[in-house]
Design a protein that fits this description.
This protein is α+β, with helices and mostly antiparallel strands. It has 18 helices and 24 strands. Helix 2 crosses helix 3 and helix 10 crosses helix 15. The radius of gyration is 23 Å and the shape is globular.
Length: 518
């Protein structure tokens, strides 16, 4: 874990807030990037119908207040110099002019606009939508849910005054002003990413104008100050500067120091998100383009929805109850889950690359880049009677790593820029086997970082710049980022994975053909 320091009397600190899908984390950081304390509170997530995910924006605020109260038990909130917010991306709130919700917020997981995507993109042109927003048409960007709202919930569309990302909502509660960051506005999908403004073409097609959205500023800019009313509610000092943060993905990248070309972050979590910094704007099918936290460059980001989620599904839903110990010996006498994973990992590590002929296409939750097919499904190829649970386990690790390597190969070919190294965070990065498989498939070194709350740290770096502790984001990243705890170089299996990588692209067409044309 990141080192933790105790706060001395008189010390100032910086606050990074990570308002994620399921919880708010409030972390106090020193100017050297040491964690001084953390507060946390969960956020409720509702599913009113299959494929629909909603939240109450008031829960974001109540969770933030509770997380700050938790943090305040160990840290003097009055000594916070500045704060910034990292927010769950592509979640949208529908608000009155006073900042009150007029309908539930629609969360990024939501799929209600599935049948709206093609029709709305066609109104502007698929290529134009992609070029302006940096995002290939997909169910994830907010813009398609806004088009759905116009058609299917016209009363809500008429009632709302402000359409806001999570950061914009929380900044309104903290400062009284509707304001957000370029790096939070851009994932909405109606932001002109190169022009750094709300897109008139896209908003015209939606029937709104820029006045319906929070004013967006460069990451690291001062958005406002904590009001006396917000101070009484949160325990923060009135007048504390609120600095423009960014989306959780970009903040996590900053948190591990991805602020220059040649490196990428690899977040091996529930989903696998990988982003490479690039100074010049580029758009393509193998990635989605995001505004970098320096406000000048861009993050070319890939996202696979099935990361550790798929491993957990395999062990919990497929292997659970399958035998009592079985030939893989992944259970102890008490059915201990951690022991099951450890035993499977040990068995899988003894198998050759390619898992004796088993290949997994890891599209259990559809696929974003590079195929952009929300109806895609996962597949397991090459099963035979000699295969056991360890083969399937290793094949999942390999399938996810091969998919990432395939996307990065396309990205490098399209941009002409080479990613020389990867910095890994997230729960999956604790697996030596998986990190080594990633290094072999990517044919690049993978560095494991000790940064646990990478998004909150990235927000803290933005706050450090806006609060005057550092002049530039690069200075903050160089000083505050976490430490490398392990390095995985491409090894003796890299050549075998290169051959598998050449064969891997055939898996998606085969699986698509098997499910038909839908």
């Amino acid at each position: 874990m990141r080192r933790t320091s105790h706060m001395s009397e008189g010390d100032a600190c910086i606050l990074g807030i990570d308002s994620s899908t399921t919880a708010t984390k409030a972390v106090a950081w020193s100017r050297d990037g040491d964690s001084l304390g953390e507060g946390r509170c969960d956020i409720a997530l509702r599913m009113p119908a299959p494929g629909r995910y909603e939240q109450n924006p008031d829960d974001w605020w109540e969770s933030l207040c509770a997380a700050l109260a938790d943090l305040g038990r160990g840290v003097d909130l009055g000594r916070i110099d500045a704060l910034a917010i990292s927010n769950q991306r592509e979640t949208v709130a529908f608000l009155s002019a006073a900042g009150e919700a007029v309908a539930p917020a629609i969360v990024w997981l939501d799929e209600r606009a599935r049948d709206t995507v093609d029709a709305f993109a066609a109104r502007i042109g698929d290529d134009a939508m992609h070029r302006i927003s940096g995002k290939h048409k997909d169910i994830t960007p907010v813009v398609y849910r806004l088009a759905w709202l116009r058609e299917h919930a016209p009363q809500t569309a008429r009632d709302l005054d402000i359409i806001s990302d999570v950061q914009g909502f929380l900044v309104k509660r903290l400062t009284g002003a509707f304001a957000t960051s370029w790096a939070s506005a851009d994932p909405m999908g109606c932001w002109d990413i190169a022009g750094k403004c709300w897109s008139e073409d896209i908003l015209d097609a939606l029937g709104w104008d820029a006045r319906a959205f929070p004013a967006a500023q460069k990451p690291g800019s001062v958005l406002g100050q904590v009001t006396a009313q917000a101070a009484a509610r949160t325990g923060l000092r009135a007048g504390t500067p609120v600095i423009a943060g960014g989306g959780d993905g970009q903040c996590a990248g900053l948190g591990v120091g991805i602020i220059r070309p040649g490196a990428a972050y690899l977040n091996i979590g529930t989903a696998v998100v990988c982003g490479a910094y690039q100074a010049d704007y580029a758009w393509g099918k193998a990635w989605r383009t995001m505004t970098a936290m320096d406000g000048d460059g861009y993050i070319l980001e890939s996202c696979l929805r099935s990361g550790t989620f798929l491993l957990n599904w395999l062990v919990d839903e497929v292997f659970s109850g399958a035998g009592n110990g079985g030939d893989d010996g992944e259970r102890d006498g008490n059915g201990n889950g951690a022991d099951r994973f450890a035993a499977l990992e040990a068995r899988a590590a003894g198998l050759p690359p390619g898992a004796d002929g088993v290949t997994v296409l890891p599209y259990w939750s559809g696929v974003m880049n590079p195929h952009w097919d929300s109806a895609a499904r996962g597949a397991i190829f090459g099963l035979a009677g000699n295969h056991g649970r360890a083969h399937l386990y290793r094949a999942v690790l390999e399938g996810i790593a091969l998919d990432q390597a395939d996307c990065m190969r396309m990205l490098e070919h399209a941009t002409g820029h080479r990613v020389e190294r990867y910095y890994a965070v997230g729960g999956g990065a604790q697996s030596d086997l998986w990190c080594q498989i990633f290094a072999d498939c990517l044919a690049r070194p993978v560095y494991r970082m000790n940064t646990v709350e990478a998004s909150a740290l990235g927000a803290g770096m933005a706050a450090a710049v806006g609060g005057g502790a550092y002049r530039r984001v690069t200075d903050a990243a160089d000083r505050m980022r976490g430490d490398i705890t392990a390095k995985f170089n491409p090894g003796e299996n890299a050549a075998a994975y290169a051959r598998l990588l050449d064969a891997y692209p055939a898996c998606y067409p085969a699986a698509k053909s098997a499910r038909g044309s839908t």
